[in-house]
Structure formats: C-alpha cells, structure tokens
Amino acid sequence: xxxxxxxxxxxxxxxxxxxxxxxxxxxxxxxxxxxxxxxxxxxxxxxxxxxxxxxxxxxxxxxxxxxxxxxxxxxxxxxxxxxxxxxxxxxxxxxxxxxxxxxxxxxxxxxxxxxxxxxxxxxxxxxxxxxxxxxxxxxxxxxxxxxxxxxxxxxxxxxxxxxxxxxxxxxxxxxxxxxxxxxxxxxxxxxxxxxxxxxxxxxxxxxxxxxxxxxxxxxxxxxxxxxxxxxxxxxxxxxxxxxxxxxxxxxxxxxxxxxxxxxxxxxxxxxxxxxxxxxxxxxxxxxxxxxxxxxxxxxxxxxxxxxxxxxxxxxxxxxxxxxxxxxxxxxxxxxxxxxxxxxxxxxxxxxxxxxxxxxxxxxxxxxxxxxxxxxxxxxxxxxxxxxxxxxxxxxxxxxxxxxxxxxxxxxxxxxxxxxxxxxxxxxxxxxxxxxxxxx
Length: 439
Hints:
Low-confidence stretches: none
Structural class: alpha+beta
C-alpha cells in the first residue's frame, strides 16, 4: 500500500509538473486571445459606428435621389406638356411648317429603351423649336404650304406668319386668293378668309415683298365669320322649310284678324249715366229727334241699342228690356267673331313648331346615316329646320294668345257696360212711367 501510495504521489507530482509546464503557455495564449478579443470588439465598435454613418449617408443619398427623381419627373412632365401644348399654341397655318420635326420628336419619345438623357435631349429639341419660332414670329417669316380657298379648293401658295396672324397668297394665276388663315374643321389645311379689293392687293404685295405693310384684322378673321353668320331674316325664315312657311301664314292671318278686331273695338263707344239721362229726358219730353241726334253720336252697338230704346220708349218696361237685350244678343256674336280662330292659332302654332322640329330631326338623322357626324355643315340644314320652326311657332303663338286674352276681356267689358246701360235705361223709363200713372 505504501508503494502504491508512493507511486500515486509520484504520478500526481509528475502530472502537477506537466500541468505547471503547460499552464504558462496556456495563460499566455489566453492573454493573447483576450487581447485579440478586445481588439476585435474595438473593431466591431468602429464598424458599427461606420455602419451608422454609412446608413445616414445612404438615407441622405436616397432622399437626394428621391428629390432628384421628383425634379426629373416634374421637368419631364413640364417638357411633355410644352410639347403637347406647342401645337395648340402655334397658328393653325404653322402645323405644316413644324409637322415633320414635331412628328420626329414624338416618334423618338415613343421608343421603349430610351434613356433619360436621350429623352431630355428630345424634349430640348422641342424647346429649341419653340425658341426658334418665337424669334421668327417677332419679325415674321414665310414658307410654302397649302390652304383651303373659297369653294373648298386646295390652293398652293405662300403663308406669311406675322405675330398672331397668318396671311396667305396663292392659288391659280387666273384667280389668286389672298387673305387671313383660320381653322377649317375636318382638314389638315387652314381655310382662307379671303380679302377683296385693296386689302387683297396689299396682302399680295406683302407676300411678294413689294410692300412692307399689311392689313390687320384685330379679330383674326372672326369678324368676317360673324358677318357671314349673320344671315338675312328671309334666309333665316327659309331655313324653317314648308312647316315654317305654314306657321308664318297662320300668323299672318291671325295678325289680319287682330287688326279687324281692333277696328271693331275701336267703333265701340259708350256713354256715362248723365248723358243717358239727358237722352231719356229728351225722348220722354217728346223731342225724339233731338234724342236720336244725341244717340247717333254714339257709335257701335251701344248706339244701336239706345236708338232702339228711344224709338220704343213708350213701350212697356218688359218689352223695352227684351228689345234692348236682343240687340246685345245679336251684337255679341259679331263682336266675338274671329276669336275662335285666334285661339286655334295660339294652340296650333306651337304644335306646328314641334312638327317642324320632328321633321328636322328626322332629316338630321338621315344625313348622319349618309355622312356620319364628321361634317357639321351637312347636318346644319336639318338642325336649322328643327330649331327655326320651334322659334317661329312660339313667336306666333305667344302674341296671338295674348291678343286673344285681351280681346276676350275687352269684349266682355264692353258688353257688361251695354247690359248696365240697358238696365239703367229700362229702370229710368219704368220709374218715369210709375210717376205718370201715380199722377
């Protein structure tokens, strides 16, 4: 056991010595690794700081990129709007002059693989065209192009652009055309608002360089178009077609009958109660001639009624009242004549206008079937008939309706006055006869 203990102790001592020998290098290695660990931690800290700085720089660059992208997008949209609006800002006559260059720019911008730089260069070409036009417009410039002359004939000639106006001179040598250029729907070429007389000669001289002055229309041709649009009243009525003439004929008859009614009402005179009493006193006193002379100064149905009353003044009050009322009954149809026709005219004129509207719309749709909707001039005849007949129908119906109401009211008032005079006449005679019987 002692030997075994001694052997074990020896093993322990050997092992302790070996551990002691190996411990120092391990401690040194641990110290080295700890130093490396500290260095790595410092490197990580520096890397984290650098990463934070890089992230901040990246965010700044990204924000700057977004701002630049926004500015680039704004500039691109602005340049695109400039290109789109260029053709609408220039005179219609200049389309032919800039068409090829603008078309080339648009075709280049439609390329899918176009870089931003190339896109900006294409837009800048459009800006250069605009600047070039601005410089040319100040002093004016000319070019050869086509225009639509009078009668729809395409004419070749010289277009002179001066400020907001464009002048044309050209066409056949036998019938040259000179004037301002304006928009012409349905064609690529502008239309010539032709001048006549000295103005045309001055445009020709300006185009050939003989005279630096040129006539200026401040309305740029609009005044000429407005004058052409102001058609005569006869032509305006003719646009209504047969239905329009029927409405006018009906209105003319209503006008004549209204004048006749005015004449009838103008012959209708009345008297006051004092004059009526004087007539009765003269008739009762036996001076029938004087009473009739006063009655004859009263024109119209009232005079006829009073004359009959004076001639039968000795009759009974019942008979006298019937006689005078018979005059009212006899004269009422005469005074109310033609009023039904005026009422019919006031009701029928709008219906005829509606009929013309339907006819015009049918014609318009028929023209649309043939020509389509591209040419408004082809549809103008049907639309004009549709609108003019309605206008004429209302122009006839409204005054006729007003006149019918006025005449009806006046006639009713006149015959009401006649009935009042008849009752006063009979009442006065009845009172006089009662006094005579009592006396």
